[in-house]
Write a structure and sequence with these properties.
The protein has 257 residues and is of the alpha+beta class. The protein has four helices and 14 strands. InterPro entries: 3D_dom, RlpA-like_sf.
Length: 257
């Protein structure tokens, strides 16, 4: 999510990715029926932004990605990719031998490294300074395609949302139904077309997300898929905290490693 590594301790024109050996997007199912009676579920007003997983290439003369012991984890990135990975929370890195490495932000407690201020002058001084201290870790689980959210829950494209770490008004692992999202025709980065059923799942967080703000996770899609929902605070919409045990269980399974 936006500002994930910097502000927190931890936690449409669609583009098609070039062939870099990436696995196809998860075969997500978007066929759940809407709640029969919305009046039985808590209504909330939200506004949104979106975030994605960065696609990058290893740069041997680039900047190290440090682990919790402040040691390099292997890949190196140029400044733009390094800063974008720190901002978004994760990156898939294509290595010179054609393999790929998935890295996730661990925290912002490392030594000062890359100065990202020229790339993000609109961020607060605290955010820009914190980004310089980002540390990462490699993801080794074969199930994880994009990165982790909270509590090592794998991110799922167009399903995961990031919510306020203080869990107001949405608690972690909440099932949320957004009527305006239902029926949207979307395209995953591998070209797979989906029609969204309106359900999203709170599996991530970030200090850039406060109160009624949610951050939609879009996988490898790096352009805004629905500006009226992820277009900032001026675009508010209704949503519902849904208590459907069957759907909730399947969402937990989707977000399990």
């Amino acid at each position: 999510m936006q500002l994930k590594s910097v502000l927190g301790a931890f936690v449409l024109v669609f583009c098609f990715l070039p062939a870099v050996g990436l696995a196809a997007d998860d075969p997500l199912t978007f066929t759940y029926d809407p709640p029969k009676d919305l009046s039985k579920h808590r209504e909330i007003e939200l506004w949104g932004t979106f975030y994605h997983t960065r696609i990058a290439k290893d740069q041997p003369d680039g900047h190290d990605l440090l682990n919790k012991h402040d040691k390099p984890i292997g890949p190196k990135l140029g400044r733009t990719d390094w800063c974008k990975a720190a901002l978004e929370g994760a990156a898939v890195i294509e290595m010179k031998d054609g393999s790929k490495v998935i890295v996730n932000v661990r925290d912002a407690d490392g030594p000062a490294q890359v100065n990202c201020s020229p790339l993000y002058p609109h961020l607060s001084a605290r955010a820009r300074n914190g980004m310089r201290h980002t540390r990462f870790f490699k993801i080794t689980s074969p199930k994880v395609k994009y990165g982790y959210g909270i509590d090592d829950m794998p991110l799922a494209a167009f399903r995961t949302i990031a919510v306020d770490r203080h869990q107001v008004p949405i608690r972690y692992r909440s099932l949320v139904f957004i009527p305006k999202l239902k029926g949207r025709n979307l395209t995953l980065a591998d070209g797979t077309a989906i029609t969204h059923d309106g359900y999203v799942f709170a599996a991530d967080t970030g200090s850039g997300v406060h109160g009624h703000h949610i951050d939609f996770y879009t996988g490898f899609v790096n352009t805004n898929p629905f500006p009226d929902l992820a277009g900032g605070e001026r675009h508010r919409f209704k949503a519902y905290l849904v208590t459907d045990e069957a759907i909730h269980k399947q969402m937990l399974e989707l977000h399990s490693d």
